[in-house]
Input
Amino acid sequence: MGIFATSPKARAAALVAPPLIYSLLLLAFPLVAIVVISFWTQSGLNLDRTFTTANYREIFSGPIYIWGNANRWGVLPLSIFVSATVTLITVALAYPIAYFVSFVVAPERKSLWLFLITIPFWTSYLIRVFLWKVILGYNGVVNTGLIELGIIQEPLNVLLYNLNSVIITLAHAYAVFAILPIYVALEKIDRSLLEASQDLGENRFTTFLRVTLPLSVPGIVGAVLIVFIPTIGDYVTPELMLGSGGRLMSNVIQTQFLQLNNWPLGAALSIITMLAVGIVSLLFILLNRRWLRGRA
Amino acid sequence: MRRAWGLRTYAIIYLVFLYAPILLLPLFAFNDAAIIAFPLTGFSTRWFEQLWTTQALHQALRNSLFIASITAILATLLGTCAARAGTMPSFPGKRGALGFVMLPLVLPEIVIAVALLIVVRQVLDLNLSNWTVIAAHTVICIPFSIAILNGAFQNLDPSFEEAAMDLGETRWGAFRLVTLPLVLPGIISSLLICFIISLDDFVIAQFLTGSNPTMPVYIYGLTRFVDALPLIMALGTILVTISITLLIIAEYFRRRGVARAGFKDTGGFL
Output
């Protein structure tokens, strides 16, 4: 115990060790395993352990996953498009709320507002997705409501079983993830900068555009990443909201593992998905480098 | 302040959007009709009575409660170590180590589930059970635990513990008698949040659950049967009530922790 009595660094290292070892065993090691297995192939019920890039060739050569054909997009580009749209809508809707809580709400009521915003996020995700199905369905709340009001005669078909419903549901599910990072960035802004800007002749709107918005970019970048990345991996919402027709990347992976029992192909698809998400995220960070650097 | 009525209106509409699903839940749960649609037909508690007599559901609930309890304790223990280390002097690689532990926050959940499934079935050749779900849930809960506890530990004045040691306490005694009571609210709120995350998780549970499904996996199975819809509504009402109660308790402890450490409340769990 000698070194722990004399060196606080050694004590810190001893404390980091348990969570780190746990993560190495249950996160790093599995991630290595997924890479290894993606270079094997499934032959019947067993795995063929000879190294091959067959799974990747299948993904890149066929029309299903990447390239698509004249009638439909490849699953990966479609998934990225859906996630990007969800992210754009979620962040755009969330920004005014974060702005409202940070700049308009009185300081002593801020944590109450944040609490109100976070409550729906902590309630059963599955049930929430399911309720959107009830709300948007053919006999759902929106349709029956609109018919009662006499606005439409026939129920609308466009609400459920298409990408709109996926986007609405995901925008609802990930709202909190978008609001909190933006709120934190807005809270950090020195309020005297806003006064200075108005003293120098900007009006409230141009002050927002030229001072507040640029300073909140780190929060926006954080919000975009924290919504974009998990939405790609979400298969519950597409499964329930698209019906049997459309499939996104996460559904394809889930099917390979739990139904078709082709784990190597599923592993390769997971890796391609992770890489695609990583590349899109990095590109996004690079594009916003200018705004992020100023804060560092 | 008065002039922000536009933003205020928007905020209220946004809250309605956020709460719409939860507010509809009890309406349909207590509705007499087997079809989920308006107009409502009359008050009934028969769906709750049906839940009360469904044995498979009770088994799923027991599994979920078991998994969530063990996960909460494991993740909070490991999270406490990491959060405490975060406030201590740095050593080479500390930032990297702590960053790696936070990685599940930016990994799609399905990737974690799939990777662990491969290790459990192909590498270790173990059977899936409640413990495989616990192991995976702990991985995704640790970052949340650290995020909550970081607040508690960083607000702490290190001189308190030093003073206790100068007065003759051992290092462990000083931690137990001085630091632990001060961060206890954070620990309780971390336990509750990890419990809720585990209780609610579906993706990982579906991949790693054994022959006994957890609650969300059981609910997901029910969604294929049209006549089970009111049951899901009733079950959802109970789950939402439990979650909100736990959250209010967690928020109470978090605020007390902030107040005890003598810092301004900046709000929020994340």
Q: What stands out?
A: Residues 21-260 of chain B form a domain with the MetI-like fold fold (CATH 1.10.3720.10). Chain B has one domain: 21-260. Chain B touches chain A through 91 residues (CB under 8 Å).
